[in-house]
Amino acid sequence: MGSESKAKAAQLSVLSKYGVLADFTDVEEVVLDRALKGRLSASASKELTFAHWRDQLLGPGVRLPVARFANPVPGQIRLGKLAIGEELAASLKSRDRQLQARLKASELEVMRLQEELQELRQTKPPATLLEPIGDDARRLKYWYHETTGYLHNILWEIKEVDGHIFDHQGQLNRDYRQQLVEIILRALNGLAALGFFIKAELCDASSKEPYLPSVMLHHNPADPEEAHLLKGFAFVVEDVQPDVLVAASECLFLGRALPEIDKQHRFNCHVNISWSHMVELNEDELFHLSCFLHKLFEALARSNDGRPRGALREAAILCLVLSSTAPCMPARLQQVQALSLQDTFYPGHRPFTSASSKPDTDASAGKILEHLFHTLHALVMR
């Protein structure tokens, strides 16, 4: 240790052992080493003079000041009569005993808690995190994690809008739209890798000509010879404003914007998802997936400049809730008897009979939250 640290250590050592608060700042290192060793016993030092005590402890001729509210300390005074040092030392020793007692009590408490924890581990085995049964369900779980991870990133930045929409707020909305388009495109590519066939298209919904060209968000068709064997679902998200169409075009065509569009124009987003028998997912998984995708596209449709941010926030939150309560996710896998979203609100309904079937994928916010409460209740009561 350095000389300064050694001087402080010697000062504390002498104070605690002999009750003398001495100043070691200007003494040699060899003197500090003698003070730290403290070979002179505390009981024997009480009858020594201050000068004799210094000679025996520190070496002949060593002089050092001592803290005391009086005149300079003469060498012939008894060490035990340095009252102020004795009182301070007694106080420090008493405090040290108290701290040692508290430390001992804390150590005993830690040992007791460790014993209780060991007993609990022996009586109740730890819950294991269950994995989905089947490779497709396991891959779907990872797909949910990846898709919703980006939704978490934008959720905290969504702010409410009061009054008119100004240019600055519109620019922020444009950023949300671009992120949502990227999230959806990434999600559709992930589903295609899982074996789904997808067609997602933004189409002009106006009744007057000229009609604007549609924008194909994603299209990976199945083999025409197998089309009649597919099962699937389809839905339409209506009343999409031009802001969304422009953002999608810029993302798909590397920044190439569409011509200026009348803000009164409206579009519909047509989504068709189908799959073959090679996709090994049960109806609960597929129905839950259809509800999640509907809310994901709805979030994109609610990201235009003319809507309050509350609508976009609600759609993003509902997507996150649906992803957490999907049958392939850990919260549901822990509950063997838990009802699925389909069984809770659509008992007996078997929607996926052909690619043209249209199940009710637009689950309301109330139904989604109620299913979340059922899931949490079953998880707590298991």
Automatic annotation (TrEMBL):
This is Uncharacterized protein. Keywords: Coiled coil. Residues 89-123 form a coiled coil. It comes from Pseudomonas helleri. It comes from the Bacteria.
